[in-house]
Write a structure and sequence with these properties.
The protein is built from 11 helices and 13 strands. The protein is an alpha+beta fold and about 325 residues long. The chain folds into 2 domains: about 260 residues, Hsp33 domain, CATH 3.55.30.10; about 55 residues, CBS domain Like, CATH 3.90.1280. The strands form 3 sheets. It has a 6-stranded mixed beta sheet with strand order 7-6-3-4-5-11, covered by helices on one side. Strands 8-9-2-1-10 form a 5-stranded antiparallel beta sheet, sandwiched between helices. The chain is elongated, with a radius of gyration of 23 Å. It starts with a strand and ends in a 5-residue tail after the last helix. Bound molecules: zinc ion. Zinc ion binds next to loops.
Length: about 325
């Protein structure tokens, strides 16, 4: 079973999450393999790390909506997407063109010419009209000469930028497990009101020392340990000298699971978006419009009657107005 394990350190302003995706991850891989063939190992591992990363972030910020991590690559991986809903419904896909070397690192996959970039989007559920999704863009290079070779480092930069919180992230994935550990230093809330300026500075130094120590322990986690051990064992091995408090969820809490948000209705809207002329020309050429979902493999077919219906519905809808049908 996939798991999300949150924890705190007693008396220390540091929190953490450990995520292990098993069934949710292998379902993503199984669907891909059955529709268009399995990913090359480096692409699979990149996508797994992205899936673990979005689950870590979702658990950490508890966002009511979709958290989407996209990498726009300039190497063989043109696009990689991992998306998680607030109930940990998860999907991921990658578009790969050309060959991938078996030992390809991050830059060889997505940042050959320093033109790769990635974005994290928070798309609220039940978005109000005119409300925008929030998007943060994160570079894949430190400067014109230095490419970042680990996804965790990319995300640590993002967390520092967006939340202004020091964060340590460890990620790993193979064909069975996608997993990650996140450790974050929390702001010293309220301390300034209770104590004078001098002790506040001491608290700040203590807090920094505590975080450094825990961060170094977290970073010592090996790929094999993260992929093969359960969360209790990992946390015990890493933090046995710390006062760690598990925040186990209730038995009924949502666990990470495969979920695709695609639907026939969405594909219908996309066809309407093409315009009637374009849709008709596809129908003349192919007899029907068929759209496959990159995430789950579902095929939606629209014949001439379906397409006719879409456009007549599209014309009627504005007259009825929202909320009245
Ligand atoms: Zn789908």
């Amino acid at each position: 079973m996939s798991e999300v394990h949150k924890f705190l350190f007693d008396g220390v302003p540091v929190r953490g999450v450990l995520v292990r995706l098993t069934d949710a991850w292998t379902e993503i891989l199984r669907r891909r393999a059955s529709v268009s063939g399995a990913y090359a190992a480096p692409v699979q591992n990149l996508l797994g790390e992205m899936a673990a990363a979005v689950t870590l972030m979702q658990s950490n910020i508890k966002f009511n909506g979709a958290l989407v991590f996209q990498v726009f690559g300039d190497g063989p991986v043109k696009l990689a997407v991992a998306e998680v809903q607030s109930d940990f419904g998860l999907r991921a896909t990658a578009t790969v063109v050309g060959d991938v070397a078996p030992d390809a690192r991050l830059s060889a996959l997505v940042n050959l010419n320093h033109e790769g970039r990635c974005a994290i989007t928070l798309d609220p559920k039940d978005r109000l009209p005119g409300q925008q999704a929030y998007q943060g863009v994160v570079p894949l290079s430190l400067d014109a000469y230095t490419k970042i070779e680990s996804l965790s480092q990319v995300l640590e930069h993002y967390m520092q930028q967006s939340e202004q919180l020091e964060t340590t992230i460890v990620l790993a994935a193979d064909d069975k497990v996608a997993a990650g550990l996140l450790i974050q230093r929390l702001p010293l809330a309220g301390v300034a009101n209770l104590a004078g300026a001098s002790s506040r500075r001491e608290d700040e130094i203590d807090s920094h020392e505590d975080y450094r120590r825990i961060s170094i322990l977290a970073s010592s986690l090996q790929r094999d340990e993260l992929l093969t051990l359960d969360s209790d064992t990992i946390l015990r091995r890493l933090f046995w000298q710390e006062k760690l408090r598990s925040l186990r969820g209730a038995p009924g809490d949502a666990l990470p699971h495969f979920f695709c948000t695609c639907s026939r209705e969405r594909v219908g809207k996309m066809i309407v978006g093409l315009g009637q002329e374009e849709a008709q020309s596809i129908l003349v050429e192919r007899g029907e419009i068929e759209v496959g979902c990159e995430f789950c493999g579902a095929q939606q077919r629209f014949d001439a009657v379906d397409v006719g219906q879409l456009f007549s519905d599209g014309i009627k809808m504005p007259e009825i107005g929202p909320g009245l049908h």
